[in-house]
Design a protein that fits this description.
The complex is a heterodimer of chains A (796) and B (442). Chain A is mainly alpha-helical and 796 residues long. Chain A is built from 39 helices and eight strands. In chain A, strands 1, 2, 4, 5, 6 and 8 form a six-stranded antiparallel beta sheet that branches. In chain A, strands 3-7 form a two-stranded antiparallel sheet. The longest helix of chain B has 19 residues, at 75-93. The chains are: A mainly alpha (796), B mainly beta (442). Chains A and B meet through helix 3, helix 5, helix 9, helix 11 and helix 13 of A and strand 2, strand 3, strand 4, helix 2 and helix 4 of B.
Chain lengths: 796, 442
């Protein structure tokens, strides 16, 4: 931190440094320089002392020299001219009989990072490569890499490259590893140092001499080498085998990573390597350093994606220690959920139950969600614990429990009886909007079985004026209408009041529009309303927790031993979900037949949560943890004029603008929607797509304009233009035959659309997103298709 | 590849900053500190990224040790390096506190300069580094009465000097002056960490032990050292031989420098320790303890008529009578609404208090001899106590230290330097077991 009076300090130091009395006394001189470095590392700008420090460089005292170099390397780029004065001292030092002085001078000469000094540096560096002392050679080798990066344009002499290659056979292992590093940087354009068979074998044979850091580095470089025949491969593997059991996690991880890349075509070898590496990895999970524990846990999670049974017998290792930080506890719970089986379920549940009352609310909530996830396979034990927790009447616990119950019921409808009983009376403790939304959804869907449902609802409706969350309000509307369908006598009056309030007094447009929609829907008749509102109550296909097919190792092998597994968001579903399960699942889980061919560029990208969720959707086995990774939402609302402006602007300017706008081409046949505009609107709204304008049915051309917002859990706050999706449905009419065969082509250009309509004789859908991504649009599109499919029988 | 290394105090003061590659500016420090302090509870802090910058950090000694790296860097390597760096600095400076780092910044810059060149780790071995490091550590000796206790009347040496002073192992490895300086000593520590879960019925649910043998050497050049372990020491389940009290571990890993040629027959490790601290052997024992777990709890928890929660806890220490646990601290989670606590403890040196913030009672026992049994009665005033609130009581967790005790039974039979150096050297063997996590469900 810069502190007050720093200028005064610098001035005083300057005086002291130029004081001849101080200069003559070398202890005092050194202490003054020490003070300079001290204030420098505190963040004070001491560049004004540059010339004094340059003078202090010419000394026989090595400690003083080192201190001055620390200073010079930080400030040289600010004073290129004055720095030239140092070069003479440095060059002289390069001739010093003491190897330590030589290496020091050489290192700092290259650390100054001054292009103007380059001409003086080449010669000492060349000499340094042939120095007797290993420490000088180490510095000289890396010096060439520094030099290369400083003057990227000019090529480094090929003789130097050859010399570096020959130094790979240097006696000193550090020189050897440094050569690899330097060549890697110098030959970056040619994709790094070339590893041929003799080099690879040389490196492998000398691996034992290197220290931990050298070993990890060499193992990493060796990933580029492809053995020519199987015999050679197995020779290499048996040479590497002892390193799998290294006590140093970094060597173990690098070896494992190398195994995975060498054996990419031999899955059985990969599996046995992972089994060999399991011991050290588990040991790292219990390491004294919590950061190391965390890294190991993240990598275990990665392994579990392919080998669910890998650490099954060691599940007790993943019980949380009470003093561990919350982020480690949460990871451990995520692993535990994966390891549950018939034998250990009671023990694991007992353990998790202990965490539910943790002081740390995040840990408590994570534990409750973990129990909920295990409940998908073992619902009885789970429900017992969860209902017991409701008795605690604590706000955060009740809220999480209700959300967990909602998600559980959606997956396991057989639990609904127990859940309905448990719901009684928990509205008093619920405070946050997430929990209340969950409760409302449950009441709406299972209202006829919860005796107190109308009274609970009445309480909510009476308090609607003070309600701040629009999410709760919209959920309340849906629930009231649903409950009205099942228990009309008790709810009619309060539904009327609610609709009246929402239409007349509500300021939030989404809520008001939804109220209007329900109002009109009710006008259309009870049957119509029932058709729209009573959708599926559950989706048992989600409940695949056990027997989930394992991923191929190659899916994640490339990110093993990188930072990626550690930064991936810990996606516990309940922590970030919004809205009711049907909305989320419809956004993610509708069948998407043609999602498989992702564009190659995307597939190579680091998988964002969207593409990850889209990919797993494609495989049809979305792990529920990423379910909420992507969702559609209605807010913020968009006016008709605003929509028109955006739509037209995108239409006209799309060619000129370099901004990446995503439109997507898709041809899926689906029956034409000939239902009333109301039901279409309501149906789309249920999946959080807002329709703006609809032509009446049976008119040609039939058009619908719609929009939605995409929100991903990873960037929930991103409500910029990127999240808005605009869409148009166009049904030009089936000219030849009046069958409702519709095709959907997603394209902005008119010719494409015409082509689509003429060939397929159906509905053309245009979806656009500014600065968006392809996968998101595909998911939106699939949602649309599902809705259209659902609505189609009405035509008959 | 490491682009920058910096050390921050817990308040965010810059203590050490070194840029190795000139790729990112100095503002990275502030970006890091803002990010790390803005984290919410459930976000894992170890790796954070900001644009092209990736921060890997560890906490040691209350300080942030941060490295910025590229995205494809190995997290294991970065974390291991930062831990090693803090270990090195501890070796050279004697201690690992903010004050110590502040005072020895010149030494630390010098170390960093030798340890990393252009972002590549060169060496972290004290054997090599000692040739290059010139600066001497600055230590501050706080005035302490303990130091005086060794000095008898008129400066005569007292008996106590047979025992290594507790501060002996926290001093810089290289110092030419000072009363401790240059004393050729070797400390061999056997350190075990146990994590245990005991069920409500007293069943052992989980028992893991992680152990290591650490050597801290203050000799500038050390000849080969032979460390003899228990002869009945066995690794893995299959190797159990005979009857008798075998000392068994599941897995065992050694430092690469350890020579194991006599290990199989005589259980002797041979090593030439380099200066400073190093771990020469790590071992684990899972799901099995050779002896009874050191503590058992017999709780009686009930509601009394006045709506109070009565907890009568009996804690028994099952260590052998010669050993004792020290600094035992028992944490008992209690219902959220607890207002006040009245307590009765069985001896005056214990203490207990209600910590409203953590919803827990902390019961401190400074010394707990083996075979003893202590009891405590806690009466809690909890308004609106319901039967469900009882769920919030427990699990009880203990933290403690068991000096001169290893729960695997691993012992060091002898410690020999060959060839024997002239009688100057002093060798110390210390044992300690820490509780990593000791939980008892109620």
């Amino acid at each position: 931190m810069p502190f007050l009076g720093s200028e005064e300090t610098v001035r005083e130091l300057k005086r002291a440094l130029s004081n001849p009395n101080v200069q003559s006394d070398h202890l005092r001189y050194r202490n003054t320089i020490l003070r300079v470095i001290r204030v420098m590392s505190q963040g004070v700008d001491v560049s004004a002392l540059f010339s004094e420090m340059v003078k202090a460089c010419a000394t026989a005292d090595i400690v003083q020299k080192k201190l001055v170099y620390v200073f010079l390397c930080s400030y040289a780029s600010l004073n290129p001219e004055l720095s030239l004065l140092v070069i003479n001292t440095l060059r002289k030092d390069c001739q010093d009989p003491n190897p330590m002085v030589r290496s020091l001078a050489l290192r700092n000469m290259t650390n100054l990072r001054l292009p103007s000094l380059l001409e003086y540096v080449g010669q000492p560096l060349t000499a340094g490569l042939r120095d007797r002392a290993a420490c000088v050679r180490r510095v000289a080798v890396l010096g060439w890499a520094k030099l290369h990066n400083l003057q990227a344009s000019s090529d480094i002499d090929s003789t130097v490259v050859n010399e570096l290659y020959s130094l790979l056979r240097d006696q000193d292992p550090v020189v050897m590893v440094n050569c690899l590093r330097a060549l890697d940087e110098i030959l970056k354009e040619e994709s790094g140092v070339a590893i041929n068979k003799p080099i690879a074998h040389h490196l492998l044979n000398r691996l034992k001499e290197c220290d931990v850091w050298g070993q990890s580095e060499v193992l990493r470089v060796l990933q580029r080498y492809a053995p020519q025949c199987e015999d050679e491969l197995f020779d290499i593997l048996s040479l590497l085998d002892p390193f799998l059991l290294s006590p140093h996690p970094s060597v173990m991880a690098a070896t494992l990573s190398l195994f995975l890349s060498l054996c990419s075509s031999l899955p059985a070898m990969c599996v046995s390597a992972l089994e060999r590496g399991r011991g050290p990895l588990l040991a790292a999970c219990g390491s004294a350093s919590r950061e190391m524990r965390f890294a190991a846990l993240c990598h275990i999670q990665l392994l579990l994606r392919s080998l669910p049974g890998l650490v099954g017998a060691h599940y007790k290792r993943f019980f949380c220690g009470y003093a561990e930080p919350a982020y480690i506890k949460q990871r451990k719970m995520q692993v535990l959920v994966e390891l549950v089986n018939d034998e250990n379920v009671t023990l694991v549940m007992d353990e998790l139950k202990g965490y539910c009352t943790d002081v740390n609310t995040d840990t408590a909530q994570a534990a409750i969600s973990a129990i909920g996830r295990i409940g998908r396979s073992y619902s009885d034990q789970c429900l017992e614990i969860l209902t017991g927790l409701l008795g605690l009447k604590q706000e955060h616990i009740t809220s999480t429990v209700v959300q967990t119950l909602r998600d559980l019921v959606w997956v396991c409808p057989q639990c609904s009886d127990a859940v309905c009983v448990a719901l009684e009376g928990c509205e008093e403790t619920l405070q946050d909007s997430q929990g209340r939304q969950a409760l409302l959804w449950l009441l709406g869907v299972y209202g006829e079985r919860v005796s107190s449902a109308p009274y609970v609802l009445e309480g909510f409706i009476d308090g609607v004026r003070g309600e701040v969350s629009p999410g709760v309000k919209t959920e309340l509307l849906t629930t009231s209408v649903r409950l009205f369908l099942s228990r009309p006598a008790e709810t009619q009056d309060m539904l009327g009041r609610l609709l009246h309030y929402c239409i007349e007094e509500e300021t939030d447009m989404c809520v008001r529009d939804q109220a209007l929609l329900y109002y009109r829907l009710l006008h259309c008749g009870i049957e119509e309303t029932r058709k729209v509102l009573q959708g599926r109550k559950s989706d048992p296909s989600l409940g695949v927790l056990i027997g989930r097919p394992a991923e191929a190792i190659s899916q994640w092998a490339s990110c093993f031993d990188t930072l990626e597994p550690l930064v991936q968001k810990a996606a516990m579903p309940e922590s970030s979900c919004r809205g009711s399960p049907e909305k989320r699942s419809s956004a993610c889980l509708s069948p998407i037949p043609d999602l498989q061919p992702l564009t190659p560029s995307r597939a190579q990208d680091t998988p964002t949560s969207q593409s990850a969720s889209a990919r797993s959707t494609a495989a049809g086995l979305l792990p529920v943890s990423s379910q909420s990774a992507f969702s559609l939402s209605l807010s913020p609302a968009l006016g008709a004029e605003e929509f028109e402006r955006l739509w037209l602007r995108q239409h006209t300017e799309e060619k000129e603008e370099e901004e990446e706008e995503v439109t997507l081409r898709e041809c899926v046949s689906c029956p034409a929607p000939c239902c009333s505009s109301h039901s279409l609107q309501a149906a789309l709204q249920l999946v959080s797509i807002q329709t703006l304008a609809v032509t009446p049915p049976h008119t040609l051309p039939w058009r619908v304009y719609l929009y939605t917002h995409t929100a991903s859990a990873a960037r929930a706050s991103a409500s910029g233009p990127g999240s808005l999706v605009l869409g148009e449905l166009l049904y030009a009419g089936a000219r030849e035959d009046q069958e409702g065969e519709a095709s959907i082509s997603v394209d902005g250009e008119s010719e494409g659309r015409k082509e689509g309509t003429e060939e397929r004789k159906g509905v053309a859908v245009t979806l656009r997103q500014r600065a968006g991504n392809d996968d998101v649009l595909r998911v939106c599109l699939s949602v649309l298709i599902t809705v259209l499919n659902t609505l189609s029988p009405e035509k008959d | 590849m490491i682009s920058q290394v910096f050390i921050l105090s817990s308040q965010g003061d810059h203590l050490i900053y070194k840029d190795f590659r000139g790729e990112a500016g100095k503002e990275a420090i502030n970006i890091f500190y803002e990010k790390v302090t803005a984290l919410t509870g459930d976000q894992p802090p170890v790796v954070m990224s900001h644009k092209e910058l990736h921060f890997v950090h560890v906490r040691q000694g209350g300080l942030y040790w941060v490295a910025t790296t590229t995205a494809d860097a190995s997290p294991f390597m970065a974390i291991e390096f930062l831990n090693r760096l803090s270990g090195l600095i501890k070796d050279y400076c004697g201690d690992l506190t903010e004050k110590c780092v502040r005072m020895n910044f010149a030494l630390i810059y010098e170390l960093l300069d030798e340890v990393i060149d252009y972002g590549y780790i060169q060496t972290t071995s004290t054997d090599i580094l000692k040739n290059f490091i010139q600066t001497e550590a600055v230590t501050s000796k706080p005035f302490s009465l303990f130091d005086l206790s060794n000095v008898g009347l008129f400066g005569a040496e007292t008996q106590q000097s047979k025992v290594a002073p507790s501060a002996a192992a926290t001093r810089p490895i290289m110092s030419s002056r000072g009363e401790q300086g240059g004393k050729p000593e070797i400390f061999v520590d056997v350190i075990e960490r146990m994590s245990v879960v005991l069920g409500a019925t007293g069943v052992l649910m989980k028992a893991d032990v992680e152990g290591e043998i650490r050597v801290k050497c203050y000799m500038p050049s050390c000849s080969e050292m032979r460390i003899g372990l228990n002869e009945e020491f066995s690794i893995g389940k299959s190797q159990l031989r005979g009857y008798g009290a075998a000392v068994r571990v599941d897995e065992c890993r050694f430092h690469p420098a350890v020579k194991l040629d006599e290990f199989d027959t005589y259980r002797i490790l041979k090593v030439c320790p380099s200066q400073g601290e190093q771990t020469i052997m790590q071992y684990q024992l899972c799901d099995d303890l050779p002896t009874a777990p050191p503590f058992r709890l017999y709780p009686t928890i009930e509601r009394d008529t006045g709506g109070r929660l009565m907890m009568y806890l009996k804690l028994r220490c099952d260590l052998p009578p010669k050993s004792a646990a020290i600094n035992v601290s028992v944490t008992i989670p209690i219902p959220k609404g607890s207002l006040s606590l009245s307590l009765e403890l069985s001896s005056p040196d214990q203490s207990a208090e209600l910590q409203a913030k953590n919803k827990a009672i902390h019961w401190e026992i400074p010394r707990f001899p083996g075979g003893a049994q202590l009891s405590a009665l806690f009466k809690l005033e909890v308004p609106g106590l319901s039967s469900a609130s009882m769920m919030e009581v427990g699990p009880v967790s203990l933290s403690f230290e068991l000096p001169k005790y290893t729960c695997t039974g691993l012992q060091i039979r002898f410690l020999r330097l060959t060839p024997v150096q002239p009688g100057l050297s002093q060798r110390w063997v210390r044992y300690v077991t820490h509780s990593d996590s000791y939980t008892i469900r109620v």
